[in-house]
Amino acid sequence: MAHLFTSSLFPFSIFLYFSFIASSFSDKHSSTFASTQTRFWSENVKNEMPAAISTKLSPLTKLDSDYYTKTISQINFKADTKFCSLAKLACWASASSPSLQAKIYKIYAAKHSKPTPSLENIDPFSFFRSSNLKQGDTIHLSSLQESLAQRAFLPPQIASKLSLTLKSVTQFFPHSSKEAIETTLSYCSSAAIKGEFKSCPKSLEEMINFSKITLGASKLLALTSKNTAGSDKMLVIEKVKQFNAEKIVGCHEIFLPFATYYCHSLPSSRIYAVDLIEPTTRTPVNTALAVCHMDTSSWPEEHVAFKILKFGPGQGEACHWMNEIDLAWINADVDNI
User: Fold this and answer.
1) Per-residue DSSP letters for 79-100?
2) In what residue span(s) does the BURP domain sit (predicted)?
3) Helices 33-44 and 62-72: angle between axes, nearest 10 degrees
4) pLDDT at site 15
């Protein structure tokens, strides 16, 4: 029996119809701005895009992106329900509840150079020593889970219209929590410590470009913890791999109505992939990313790391885990296989 779709039996008009449907589907998919972000990633990053990023790609169509780029250029633009829904933004105050604000403060206080007055609500395992990363040893894995509202990146042409000032952000997003925005911007505008390069990139493209410039790299490698398994548990270290990176850019997601990160590079930092297993069954649990800052001499005396580790600036290194929404960037031109 002849095949159903031979050239003699399958009408050319039907062939054209299916070709049109396939073409329409392809055009529709490629019309989303996410495809532009994906292409930018592949041009600048060596490895695949992690879920921490892929879930934040802009759902705006290119047509919508162009429209809002022009609209936002107008005076007194304010994000309305339609724009926030189309762009997948968290524009309302309910997205930054008091409990979430406490979480945000905890994230900043535990990981950055901002001082904190006490250890209240701070994970006592937030920081540890590099000597704790030994094969066969037991270690407490901090929680790698985060509860920040899900938001997408803005296309760079829209993000460029927005300056990271309280006046600008609250004008664009009048229904968002002013307190939450002010908290975030205070960290973005704080002075860098000695040897630190820092930025709060407003788009995926800005984050990649900042990391490339800071690292002097033509192409990047993006590193993340594998998942959140083993959070808040005692686990056994099966293997530790140190990446061959002279410089690292760490990016920690922060709260604004759109996806954005606090990115910084501290001198004398090391990064490790730590394979963790269950103590009793010895089954694999996770591969978590750990960063160790070997030079703490320029950190403020009030830093929470010193309260946890019981020493002062310059008296030892401070290590911490990278959670599910954190990213670490290193130079892909260096062999790390």
Assistant:
1) --HHHHHHHT---SGGGS-HHH
2) 127-332
3) 100
4) 35
Surface-to-core class of residue 189, CB atoms within 10 Å of its CB (0-12 exposed, 13-18 middle, 19+ buried): exposed
* Helix and strand counts by DSSP (H, E) for the chain: 11, 10
Tell which residue, 228, 176, 246, 169, has the closest CA to residue 200. 169
Instruction: Give the containing element (helix H, strand E) for 30.
Output: helix 12-30
Which tokens is 1 given?
Answer: 């029996």
User: Could you tell me which residues come within 8 angstroms of residue 85 by beta carbon, excluding any fewer than 6 positions away?
Assistant: none
Buried b (16+ CB within 10 A) or exposed e, 96-132: beeebbebbbbbbbbbbbbebeeeeebbebbbbebee
pLDDT, tens digit, 9 for 90 and up, residues 253-270: 989 999 999 999 999 999
Distance CA 46, CA 333 (A): 9
Q: What is the pLDDT of residues 308-334, one digit of tens each?
A: 999 999 999 999 999 988 999 999 987
Rounded Cα–Cα distance for residues 255 and 100 (Å): 9
**Quick check: helix, strand or coil at residue 172?**
helix
